[in-house]
Amino acid sequence: MVRRAASHRLDFDAAAIYQYPEHLRQWLEGLPNQPGVYTFHGESENLPLYIGKSVNLRSRVMAHFRAPDEAKMLRQARRVTWIPTAGDVGAQLLEAQMIKTQQPLFNKRLRKNRQLCSLQLGDGAPQVVYAKDLDFSRSPNLYGLFRSRFAALEKLKAIADEQRLCHGLLGLESLRPGRGCFRAALKRCAGACCGNESVAEHQQRLHAALEQMRIQCWPWQGPVGMVETGTNITQIHVIDHWFWLGSVSSEAEARQLQRASHGFDHDGYKILCRPLLSGVFPLIEL
């Protein structure tokens, strides 16, 4: 009851102190009804307040103006700028890059995760491998992207619960010779560790469960350009091993872009994997 009352009080206070940001009204006039990335700027020229993206810049920015819970940010804002894109994919790529490089005050901070890991499955138990040691864009039999070893193992345990898999065969528990795992006695393991089912059956269920999380290897020899066409603009998004190099307007410009950064780009993979492999967008091999 106390927490609920406190929550209501916070909501009331936000609404009570909210004032429509008249000082920003002028920036609404030129906002286009097209995809892109927008930035709320404060007094500082180097530290933006907030960066966002939308398929309709005008509609999204105006929604901020009607949000009492954003009163603090709006009071500090002095101007709004925007960069149009051809579509949603370009907006997502640009937004992710700008947030990571500019670190706006009111955005969730995005930093390179040095503990990014995955589950790699060979002939035996799954192994936790790290992006700092292995190029995830080229390595086969990787499943899932996790921010820590703990998160990867928790996911493996969840799969074991769903599929009645053996913790011993998964490398989560040490098995004693001639004895089943602890979970077998609780009927939570189907018994591959004690002869109640074959190891092949166990591994088949494991493979099937992991397949939904498979990390796709980069399927091209080098970079490609993905063509995204909007109402007033066409962009070629240049990608190399799931890493976005930039967006340009011509194939000649695309061929000039070079990859300066190395390592697996988690955000790039999440944004680009499905659009690139879907066949919806025209591709240019560079």
From TrEMBL:
It comes from the Bacteria. Residues 33-108 form the GIY-YIG domain. PROSITE patterns: GIY_YIG. Keywords: DNA damage, DNA excision, DNA repair, Excision nuclease, Hydrolase, SOS response. SUPFAM superfamilies: GIY-YIG endonuclease. SMART domains: GIYc. One of its GO terms (molecular function) is hydrolase activity. This is Excinuclease cho. It comes from Pantoea leporis. The lineage of its organism: Bacteria, Pseudomonadati, Pseudomonadota, Gammaproteobacteria, Enterobacterales.
